[in-house]
Amino acid sequence: MRNCKGYVYLELMAAFSVCILLVLAILPMLEEVLTHRKDISLRTEAHHLLYERLTAFMDGGDSGSWSGDHLQKKKL
Question: Which of 19, 26, 29, 57 measures 20 to 30 Å from 1, CA to CA?
Answer without folding.
Answer: 19
